[in-house]
Amino acid sequence: MNKSCINVGILGWGTVGTGVSKILLNQNALIAKNSGVELSVKKIVKRTLPAAREGVELPVDCLTTDPTEVVDNPDIDIVVELIGGTSESRTLISRAIRNGKHVVTANKALLAEHGAELFQLASEYRVSLNFEASTAGGIPIIKTLQESFAGNQIHSLYGIVNGTCNYILTEMHDRRVDFSEVLKAAQDMGYAEADPTLDVEGIDAAQKLILLIALAYRSNISLSQFYVEGITEITQKEIQYARELGYVIKLLAIAKLGTDNRVEARVHPTLVPERSLLANVGGAFNAVCVIGDAVGPTLFYGQGAGEMPTASAVVADIIDAAKSVQQGVSASISRAWLAGSQSEVDVSPIDDIETRYYLRFVVADRPGVLAMIGTILGNWEISVASVIQKDPHGMETVSLVMLTHSAREKNMKAALAEIHTLEAVKGETKLIRIEEEVDF
Ligand code: HSE
């Protein structure tokens, strides 16, 4: 088949859908010049039909409330799913694939949960299922891992992939305000969701990590298999002590290839050296650092959300799918997901990781307390790198902040359990892992 014009149907006309329609309608000639494909927006599905939108002039009869006018429409070649959620989107994508349509989606939650099934289906029907916009918005990290780095063994990957968390942490760092205050301001300004749980608890970042790991390690892992911790417990004290020690706190999604064919996967607040590029990724921006055996360290930076950056990624996927339609070749399908449940690597349990730690103990300020804590850490083969105590003598409790050398997580947990039996240790200990490998 050699079609001159490729027809696109869009499910969902919210923020990203509007951005996609703007690019497809307003940059049609540019896209044709750049990529050699001519795209036409045939149908857009919106549950309740909206009034006209500024900057978008849709063709007559383009808007509909009925998704079958897209997924069952014989004239439509490419279906773009931008409705989100994991139920209706799954049904509609499956139906579009069964109807032989190429699919583009920005839906990380759906792919993180049902990716194996959907890619299997796409493979069966020889259509593509493209998902660049699902992770880090406008940053082309999916294509980079799938294509540009295909000749690399990925040693490790570190992502600031949640803009809401990065915005909150940056404000806490720069303006010295508390988590709850920044979150409220972010919600008032429309940066953070009314229910920010998925973002601030690290789930959104974890869903994106699942996709990155699938591509980097041909491994199909689920949310329940790895450690996820959000930023809700980060206080001004942690931000300020970290700063004093030469670090900045970032929520990182981390993947590392270990020995025995296992991969470390985790999402948690992390101390990164303040001079590193990652430490200086501020506000709602995203960045993904990938270290490959051939390419070495690389860093990709840009806007991870928002109307036009996300639309930019969706349009790139549409163009890729359109080329497949036009050339009549079977689609470029992500091989990683085709492995289904037969992952090539296993996930290491968090207890097995080895890393450096920031610890803040809340203790009674009297002779011998530091020695007792140091002895227990030593007994568990945890070596202390530095200690600071800033609170003035005479207070009921003080903060004792330590940085350790690299230690095994299992030992750290056991040591902390023992330390908490000491009468002089008064409150919960704050533990934040440190990453030095991102120091470039
Ligand atoms: N909620 C996400 C963020 C954007 O804050 O980065 C969508 O992936």
Helix content: 25-40%
User: What distance lies between the first and last C-alpha atoms, to the nearest angstrom?
Assistant: 48 Å
DSSP strand tally: 18
Counted by DSSP, the helix tally is 15
**Radius of gyration (Å):** 24 Å
The dominant shape is: elongated
Main sheet makeup: 12 strands, mixed
Strand content is: 15-25%
Bound molecules: L-homoserine
Determine the mean pLDDT.
93
Structural class: alpha/beta
Q: Give the low-confidence spans.
A: none
Q: How would you describe what is shown here?
A:
The mean pLDDT is 93. The longest helix is centred in the C-terminal third of the chain and has 21 residues, at 307-327. The chain is elongated, with a radius of gyration of 24 Å. Strand 9 and strand 10 (262-273) form a beta hairpin. The chain has helices spanning 15-26, 28-35, 68-71, 88-98, 108-124, 141-148, 163-175, 179-188, 197-200, 203-217, 236-244, 307-327, 335-338, 369-379, 409-419, and strands spanning 5-11, 38-45, 63-64, 78-81, 102-105, 129-130, 154-160, 227-228, 247-257, 262-273, 285-292, 296-303, 346-347, 354-364, 384-388, 397-404, 407-408, 430-434. Strands 7, 8, 9, 10, 11, 12, 13, 14, 15, 16, 17 and 18 form a 12-stranded mixed β-sheet that branches. Helix 1 (15-26) packs across helix 12 and helix 6 runs parallel beside helix 10 (203-217). The chain is α/β, with parallel strands linked by helices and 440 residues long. It has 15 helices and 18 strands. The two termini are 48 Å apart. Bound molecules: L-homoserine.
